[in-house]
Amino acid sequence: MSKKSDFLFNKESTHFFLPWMCALMVFMTTLILAGGMSIHNSLKLWQKGVAESLTVQIATYDDDGNSRGELVYRDIENALTLLRTTPGVLGAMVLNDDQMQELMVPWLGTDAVISQLPLPKLIDVSVDASRPPMLEQLKADLEQAVPGAILDSHRIWLADLVHFASAILSLIGFIVILLFITVAITVMYTTKSMLSIQEHILDLVHMLGAKDLYITNRYAWHNFKTALSGSFIGFVIAIPIMFGVTMFLKSVSGELLQSSLSATQWGLLILVPFAVAGLTFFTTYKTVLTYLRKFV
Amino acid sequence: MNTKEDISPNIVEFNGVSLRYNKGPEILKDISFVLEPRSFYFMTGESGAGKTSLLSLLYLHLEPTRGRIRLFGQAVDMMSRATKAQFRRQIGVVFQDYRLLNHLNAFDNVALPLRLAGEKEADIKKHVSELLSWVGLEKQMKSYPEELAGGEQQRIAIARAVIHKPTLLLADEPTGNVDDAMAKRLMYLFLELNKLGTTIVVATHNVGLVKNFHFPQLHLSEGHVTQVPASGTSYTDMAAKLLKREEKNVEKI
Ligand SMILES: Nc1ncnc2c1ncn2[C@@H]1O[C@H](COP(=O)(O)OP(=O)(O)O)[C@@H](O)[C@H]1O
Ligand SMILES: [Mg+2]
User: Fold this and answer.
1) What does the buried/exposed string (b/e) look like for B52-64 if buried means 16 or more CB atoms within 10 Å of the residue's CB?
2) Taking a C-beta distance cutoff of 8 angstroms, is the pair A193, A15 a contact?
3) Are B76 and B70 within 8 A, CB to CB?
4) What is the DSSP letter of B166?
5) Which residue of chain B comes nearest to A201, CA vs CA?
6) Please, is B83 exposed, middle or buried when counting C-beta atoms within 10 Å of its C-beta (0-12, 13-18, 19+)?
7) Which of B52, B56, B217 for a ligand 1 pocket mutation test, highest count of atoms within 8 Å of Cβ?
């Protein structure tokens, strides 16, 4: 667009607020989304850890080395009942002696006589990896219902992490939507204030026969360009900060956090400035078109 | 060849038109008149009689509270917004308060209608420079309205109204701020345009101007319009003589 034809816009046309608002919004959205993506990537890893089935041990001998006899079967019944009514548990099954033997082969060899060993009974619990049971709670319940039952606990915190991360991801989605709504509302008010400052220009070009769509498009592109330049500033500032945070997390969390993003995810992040500028275009378009209806 | 009626309907037709601002009294009351193609009218009446209001109806800035206006043969109340915009491009308006854009210099203000019409920059440069020279503003082309005197601003406003050779020119007190010599020069500019086929309405309360140029009047008083002399006698001999030259322009209507 040559400077000569920029008669619609004067010095006040570019609202100082618009590019900075876009910069800030893109900055926040990019960082939040990048955080969400790395949590998302890690989540898969964590879920895999949780998905490997849980086991519950029921002791067959007491602390003094005496067989607990019938008590074992009562404990197993209670544990199964509890497990099968716990949300997130897909199934629970007592391993029989053959299966136990299979498990023991790597350690004891095929000759071992299982029945002569003071092995505990094992309950194999399969778990819904996407919605794992609240293991902390399950552990407590189990200890109350079946004293002496042991839930292997190394996955408990991992399952908690999955819960926490899922909640964080929903929150991030919600925040990103809020940020975009904020962009739309801000652009609407900014545009309205631009229009009322420039009403004399609009009124004149309208009377000279400028069509609504012509004025509307000019405004939409004008704000789009302003928003895009601001957006890129926000994006460019966000990138080194993202790398810094990534380095820091790597150093404190080791392999736990999968912080490197895939090419697709990078592609999505690069779309953020365009999305904000696009939203600005669309909102400006709607606002100007509505505003122009006040002219006969 | 077609007769004039076939190819060019009346430029303007008012049919029982009334206008009031908001809940105020009727400023214009049940007005009916016709402006034929290539006619030249003065619009007279005291200050506050409603001249500016009537012109605003003509350049589609206001809508009548009652009655119907036809412009270039089409009912205004039936037009789409896009059609109205199209028609506005065929109307040149000299606003009483000029309405120049302060962020544009004299040249760019005058170029506005051409740029809206998407003309080539080279043509724009040529035509705008010529016209600004004609109204004696060749040295002020790069000046901004706020740096110019009232009379100079008025000439820019006039130049902007005529630069695209409109079919209908509406001038609201266009000579109110210039001396008599310049007023005459500007009237000749309008006459020149009239010869080329533009229908012209000049609102004025400059009695000398009205006396000097023997054009019919639309006289506004107490909300009513009287045509002096009565409608149908408004063609100038000049216009008839130039009919041949005008055929091109007529076909554009
Ligand atoms: N925007 C407006 N709102 C309310 N009243 C108006 C407005 N414009 C003009 N008027 C009133 O309409 C009447 C005619 O005004 P106007 O058309 O400007 O007359 P003229 O141009 O002949 O001086 C005046 O009484 C004026 O006060
Ligand atoms: Mg007036």
Assistant:
1) bbbbbbbbbbbeb
2) yes
3) yes
4) -
5) B101
6) middle
7) B52
Phi and psi at A7, nearest 5°, equal -65, -20
Domain ranges of chain B: 102-165
Tokens 């067959």 sit at which residue? A60
Residue nearest to atom 14 of ligand 1 (CA): B50
Contact B132, B81 (CB under 8 A): no
Chain center to CA of A187? 27
pLDDT tens-digit series, residues A7-47:
888 776 667 789 999 999 999 999 999 999 988 888 877 77
Q: Are strands B91-94 and B168-172 parallel, antiparallel or unpaired?
A: parallel
**What's the mean per-residue pLDDT of chain A?**
84
Q: CA–CA separation, B197 vs B229, rounded Å? A: 21
Count Cα atoms within 13 angstroms, Cβ side, for A53.
15
10 Å CB burial of residue A229 (0-12, 13-18, 19+) is middle
ipTM of the complex, rounded to two decimals? 0.84
pTM of the model: 0.76
What are the chain A neighbours of B116 within 8 Å (beta carbons)? 205, 208-210, 214
Test the B interface: residue of A3, A9, A207, A213 with most B CBs within 10 Å: A207
SS3 call for B33: strand
pLDDT in the model for residue A256: 66
The C-alpha atoms of residue B16 and residue B28 are separated, in whole angstroms, by 10
- The C-alpha atoms of residue A272 and residue A228 are separated, in whole angstroms, by 10
- Beta-carbon contacts of B3 under 8 Å, excluding residues fewer than 6 positions away, are none
Three-state DSSP string of B83-110: HHHHHHCCEEEECCCCCCCCCCCHHHHH
